[in-house]
Automatic annotation (TrEMBL), chain A:
Pfam families: GPP34. Its main location: Golgi. Gene3D superfamilies: yeast vps74-n-term truncation variant domain like. It comes from Glycomyces harbinensis. This is Golgi phosphoprotein 3 (GPP34). The keyword Transmembrane does not apply.
From TrEMBL, chain B:
It is a multi-pass membrane protein. InterPro entries: AA-permease/SLC12A_dom, APC_superfamily. It comes from Glycomyces harbinensis. The chain crosses the membrane at residues 25-50, 56-76, 97-121, 127-151, 163-184, 204-225, 237-259, 297-319, 340-364, 370-398, 410-434, 446-465. GO terms for cellular component: membrane. Residues 43-426 form the Amino acid permease/ SLC12A domain. PANTHER family: AMINO ACID PERMEASE (PTHR42770:SF16), AMINO ACID TRANSPORTER-RELATED (PTHR42770). It is found in: Membrane. One of its GO terms (biological process) is transmembrane transport. Keywords: Membrane, Transmembrane, Transmembrane helix. Gene3D superfamilies: Amino acid/polyamine transporter I. This is Amino acid transporter. Pfam families: AA_permease.
């Protein structure tokens, strides 16, 4: 029985969407949560734990054949939630749900246990509740995912791994095109587009619904 | 044995907590309308232009037309995506080519309406600052407001909504106070003549009805939030009808109160003598000078809010068109930190800036040539858009009633079509009255010709897209969800999206 992969896609998505530095801003919190949700769903689709029924309105369903449950708590949490639903729900509903489920904190806590992030708790003098913040353990680690996919776009030598191709599509969908393509050679966009178009149908569906959800957020301003 | 119900969905239960109720939608739609601008900048001008006292009746007629229209409109919004834009209704009802034609007319009309408000804004600011002893040209004040609106426009819509909500509450309170004061100080007692059918007629009827429609723009906003509504079937319809009802009450009460305070025989002359100041002069006389000044300052904030509201609507239209790639895809870009449609917003800001500069350089009158000519012309475009949308609703449900009632799909939409087509016909026929020029002058003919040319160009562009870019053509009318239908190969979309023509 194959081992469940480490949830790397969702870590990369968090660092790309929520970490800001001189070269790249963080996206709006709602958009970051949508991006994290899409990354987690995509990761579980890639690991064979979830399926997207493209023929029936892009519904998310569990896959029970020949795959052990995810070994990480994050993946297990979502898989069990999907399994617990009385009937499969469309991907947009799952993205909406994940966006209000504090997925950022869940993922960041997960990354704290793996040593990728530090958790800081500050007690406010004026407020009774304490404020929790997360910082990457290392600036280089924080920049690594974007640097990696930009390297693909700069060299354009080989086909990108599937997870990185999805990450490129996700980075563009959340509005970080400028950071993604800055100083990349001519043809980088076409190279990325060809990868996005050749994503498997379930991942294309997740990407399409993510882009639509981000655009909806911009139109309604409903954060 | 009792029937067993399906176990509840934990995901849907969680999402239900965040759904928007009728009051939330009402908040969004009422903030898109700015009643003080309509009353002080529009109603009093209507008395002067129309030369008759049937304004309250005009608002009753238009409110009834829009209520009929809203029945089919909100019903159709439940069955389509991108339900916030009227061109999307037209694309789904009449086809993509008329849809793009409507989109071009809509974007131009909203853009022109927003730019026209800089004229009123500049003149109002000039007056307020002059009363404080400061001499500032109208264009300088307009440019300051333009900068503020441009900055707010690139921020997230929720920040704008908060600003607009505060202004709206203050505006409505002041309007109700002024109206109550007018009714408490009648010139000749309370008259029912403004509500008599004979009060609205002649060559000015179309002008009154066209201007009345403009006051309700924003009533269509609840459909934007259809997917986030608590009960998509009822919440959106309730909020739309409530918006029409509340605005109608405010407009009818305030216009009737002005007639009551000035007297039905004198109101036309008084309005012609002081088109934007009559309401505040009355408040100053009845409640004290301070209230007149408060009213003028609030008119300034109200016009700013109106300009911001139209700015947001225009940016939303351009953004949706950018996402569909019907116009350049760059207009579909969002700002990273605020997730606002910044490229579309900047485009609208650029147009507004160019208009102010051109009007200032040419020395044109900001009130007559900018606010009034451009604003009323945009009003005709928006009326044509609503009418086309009414026809689209009829055609859409003629093909398939989608399980909706006869009233919602046939009777009310057909009645709305007839009523709105009549209003549009009268408005175009009497457009010279609206502009205050002689019948046969070139300007009243030019405006419908410009809109017709825009529609033809839009239709031509759509026909080109159909042949040269079928991917883009397939996404017309889908707005934010266009990516789900354009060039996605094997991706299957929801049944609703798949049903699109």
């Amino acid at each position: 029985m194959p081992d469940a992969p480490a949830p790397r896609l969702v870590y990369d998505a968090l660092l790309i969407t929520s970490h800001h530095d001189f070269y790249k801003p963080a996206v709006a919190p709602r958009v970051a949560e949508l991006g994290l949700g899409a990354a987690l769903v995509a990761e579980l689709v890639l690991s064979g734990h979830l399926a997207v029924w493209s023929s029936d309105g892009s519904k998310l369903a569990p896959r029970d054949i020949g795959v052990a449950p995810p070994t990480d708590s994050l993946g297990l949490w979502l898989t069990e939630l999907v399994r617990a639903e009385p009937e499969p729900l469309p991907v947009p509903e799952w993205l909406d749900f994940l966006a209000v489920s504090d997925l950022y904190a869940k993922t960041a806590d997960h990354m704290v246990t793996t040593g990728l992030m530090h958790r800081t708790e500050r007690r406010s003098r004026w407020r009774k509740a304490s404020q929790v913040s997360y910082e990457p353990a290392d600036a280089l680690v924080a920049q690594a995912p974007l640097a990696r996919i930009r390297r693909h776009l700069s060299s354009m030598e080989h086909r990108m791994p599937l997870a990185d191709a999805f990450l490129v599509a996700l980075t563009e969908a959340v509005g970080l095109s400028k950071s993604l393509y800055s100083q990349t050679p001519y043809g980088a966009r076409e190279y990325a587009l060809s990868h996005t178009r050749s994503l498997p149908a379930p991942l294309q569906s997740v990407h399409g619904h993510l882009a639509a959800a981000v655009a909806d957020t911009a139109i309604t301003g409903n954060f | 044995m009792p029937a067993t119900s399906a176990p509840p969905s934990a995901v849907r239960s969680t999402l239900a907590h965040d759904k928007l109720g009728t009051f939330s939608l009402l908040h969004f739609s009422l903030t898109a309308a700015t009643p003080l601008t309509v009353i002080a900048g529009g109603v009093v001008v209507m008395f002067a232009v129309a030369g008759q006292i049937g304004i309250p009746l005009g608002y009753i007629v238009i409110a009834a037309c829009l209520w009929l229209f809203s029945v089919g409109y909100t019903t159709m919004s439940r069955h389509i995506t991108n339900a916030g834009a009227m061109y999307a209704f037209i694309a789904r009802g009449l086809g993509r080519i008329p849809g793009v034609a409507a989109a071009w007319v809509a974007a131009t009309s909203y853009c022109a309406m927003q730019a026209s408000l800089y004229g009123l804004l500049g003149v109002t600011a000039e007056g307020v600052l002059a009363s404080a002893g400061l001499t500032v040209p109208w264009w300088a004040a307009a440019l300051v407001a333009w900068l503020l609106i441009g900055l707010l426009g690139t921020r997230a819509v929720d920040i704008n909504a908060k600003v607009l909500a505060v202004l709206l509450v203050v505006e409505i309170a002041v309007i109700l106070l002024f109206s109550a004061s007018n009714f408490a100080n009648p010139a000749d007692g309370l008259s029912l003549a403004p509500l008599s059918p004979t009060a609205l007629g002649g060559e000015a009827a179309g002008a009154v009805l066209a201007l009345a429609v403009v006051g309700f723009i924003g009533f269509e906003s609840p459909t934007v939030y259809g997917e986030e509504a608590r009960d998509r079937r009822r919440t959106v319809a309730r909020a739309t009808v409530a918006t029409i009802g509340i605005l109608a009450f405010i407009y009818i009460a305030s216009s009737w109160s002005i007639i009551t305070a000035v007297g039905e025989d004198d109101v036309v002359a008084a309005a012609a003598a002081d088109p934007t100041g009559l309401m505040f002069s009355l408040a100053g006389d009845q409640l004290g000078d301070a209230w007149g000044t408060i009213g003028r300052v609030l008119l300034l904030t109200s016009v700013t809010a109106a300009a911001l509201s139209f700015h947001n609507t225009t940016a939303r239209y351009l953004f949706a068109l950018g996402r569909e790639q019907v116009v350049t895809a760059k207009l579909g870009l969002t700002s990273v930190r605020a997730c606002a449609p910044w490229a579309a917003s900047l485009a609208q800001t650029a147009v507004g800036g160019i208009v102010i500069v051109v009007w200032a350089v040419l020395g044109l009158d900001p009130e007559l040539h900018l606010f009034y000519y451009l604003g009323t012309s945009a009003g005709i475009g928006l009326l044509a858009l609503i009418t086309a949308c009414a026809f689209a609703v009829v055609v859409y449900f003629w093909r398939d009633r989608q399980g909706e009632s006869l009233w919602h799909t046939r009777i009310a939409p057909v009645l709305a079509c007839v009523a709105l087509a009549g209003v549009l016909f009268l408005s175009v026929l009497h457009f010279h009255t609206l502009l205050g020029v002689e019948q046969g002058s070139p300007l009243p003919r030019l405006v419908p010709i410009v809109f017709a040319a825009l529609a033809l160009l839009g239709a031509g562009w759509a026909a080109y897209l159909k042949r040269a870019k079928p991917d883009v053509y397939s996404g017309i009318g889908y707005g934010a969800k266009a990516t789900l239908v354009q060039g996605t190969g094997d991706v299957k979309v929801s049944a609703e999206v798949a049903r699109g023509r």
